[in-house]
Amino acid sequence: MAMKALSKATIYQVAQRAGVSIATVSRALRDSDLVTPETRERVHAAARELQFTPSRPARSLAEGRHAANGIVFPDLVGPYYAEVVLGYEATAGSLGSSVLILATNGRPDAEAAVRELAGRVDGLTVMGRTVGDDVVRGIASTGLPMVLLARDPVDGVDTVRAGNTNTAKALAEHLLGHGHRTITFLGDPDGSSDVAGRFAGVRAALAGTDALLSLVRGNGLDLDSGRTAARQILADRPDAVVCANDEAALGVLLAAEEAGLDVPRDLAVTGWDDLLAARFAGLTTVRQPMRELGATAARWLNRRINEPPLENTAARRRILATEVVIRRSCGVHEEVHP
Amino acid sequence: MAMKALSKATIYQVAQRAGVSIATVSRALRDSDLVTPETRERVHAAARELQFTPSRPARSLAEGRHAANGIVFPDLVGPYYAEVVLGYEATAGSLGSSVLILATNGRPDAEAAVRELAGRVDGLTVMGRTVGDDVVRGIASTGLPMVLLARDPVDGVDTVRAGNTNTAKALAEHLLGHGHRTITFLGDPDGSSDVAGRFAGVRAALAGTDALLSLVRGNGLDLDSGRTAARQILADRPDAVVCANDEAALGVLLAAEEAGLDVPRDLAVTGWDDLLAARFAGLTTVRQPMRELGATAARWLNRRINEPPLENTAARRRILATEVVIRRSCGVHEEVHP
DNA sequence: TTGAAAGCGATACCAC
DNA sequence: GTGGTATCGCTTTCAA
């Protein structure tokens, strides 16, 4: 039987086999027009026979670029980040760039991991509160193109995010319209700038009204944290609980059910993200363009990477629109739902 | 010849600054014990001052490895893949490897993209029906360590998957227990081996009974495809619709509601995956260890990568356990739900 | 312990 | 058009 030809072929072997120099191989393989169709074909044949694939590190070293970019996010748990990352990958891929991902989640060495990642890419997207501003500045100052995603801006770095405050204000006003007067916000404004913006919006809506706003930070934005926090919140019998995201809100829904409370009659609940589950739970929430957030970041990063060094434009900011999605959980509406 | 504005420092500059050779810098920075604590410190200081970070391509070229591995999946849409990829990233990261992702989704050049990815990593995990067996074999034959995830095995390549057939059989038997006799399976067995396994399980359960099984392939496994397919299915008034995944099942639920059908009284519906939404939709489904699937693949791949070439063990197979999760949608149970 | 130098595998400039 | 070769930045013998 034939021997397993696993040692990858190099450009030298292809050159030898085709009877040309490595320079010619390089040209022929990248379809340079400085090669005779004849030799071009000969080289391609040799390459094919040897199953030649150029070494990526060698290429990168010679070209001075990685042809890859990276995205750092806190976690991939929950549909929110997943959608954003997917949008990012799809767009980056179509722009001809490979994508490296890094979830800083429970990583103790997040900062080091991010720096290491920065060394593997032509540009980096940093999402949410994964690493401090100092790290972002440090990396940006090396000249590596960067884009911030769903995160407070840093001087000189592009930022893409989804609208929080205005939409949160609209949501809270809708709640007021239902007659709710004691409102609890569940989420930690110090935990992420998104949450901070949402809280600010709610507060703005209640300012100058007779409604009462209280804040419960909770332990996180997942279902169980929401459920746990809700047990405490429900003891105070607020009219409504505005949650920082859908998962927490779903947890509150579960806790309310346990407590024998009817939503929305006894308690109104709202979330944020419009997850698939929100639809089936009848949860009033806010929809944000997750896929588009990722796609925009990828597009911007690509632009920065290919930008002529001297035309370096000022940092961009963009806030993508979000919208309130009214369902059953925010209060009793005219029509009766089955 | 343009001047690089922010050229990163090289090992040469560090060497010069520390007054040593590049060899010494290399050793000092990788904490070799062949260096005086004294010079070690001097080198570290110089590196720090110059903000030196070794060039990844240069390192990879010299070491002959990437310190990275990749995972290919069809799509990241829907919580299923996201969870698997997260589990993968977390484990790979903790094993000291960077992770490259590739969604073949709507990519016309999926095969080329996978090959290109293969050139950037020390090992590759291929999930589902992203590329053909020929491509898998081709890559595996170059000696690149691989792991197959949720996909039919290929000779000589490790495979990790979740149980389908037996659990599907149990699920179908439960349905029979409810008295359902006309059952429609929604999903394309030719579209993925997972779906094929689930269908096989259902068929096995009905074999030898008086129950009738029909197959509707549908156009996909997302909510809208399920909803659309359901409109056709419902015309036949089956007792139960067994869906290949939760998203399709949720679509069926929506269509049933539109048609004025009561689930489970008029129609039983089951899904697969146990998404968060399934819980709130009261959907009977099957839970699979998504996170663990990814983690196992990452662990196996790591083992292969670091395996002494000659101890090359036979291809491994593992099927992780799945379990039926009974909720309301499969039929009327004793207890009355609110 | 440290330094000199030989790779690693491409790209691209400069002659011919 | 092609070939020779310097270069990219680092790791790793091999000597000293």
Automatic annotation (TrEMBL), chains A, B:
Recorded GO MF terms: DNA binding
Listed Pfam families: LacI, Peripla_BP_3
Keyword Repressor: yes
Source superkingdom: Bacteria
Cell wall biogenesis/degradation found in the keyword field: no
Family annotation (SUPFAM superfamilies): lambda repressor-like DNA-binding domains, Periplasmic binding protein-like I
Alphabetic keyword roster: DNA-binding, Repressor, Transcription, Transcription regulation
SMART domains noted in UniProt: HTH_LACI (SM00354)
Residue intervals of the HTH lacI-type domain: 9-63
The name this protein goes by in its record: LacI family DNA-binding transcriptional regulator
Source taxonomy: Bacteria, Bacillati, Actinomycetota, Actinomycetes, Micromonosporales
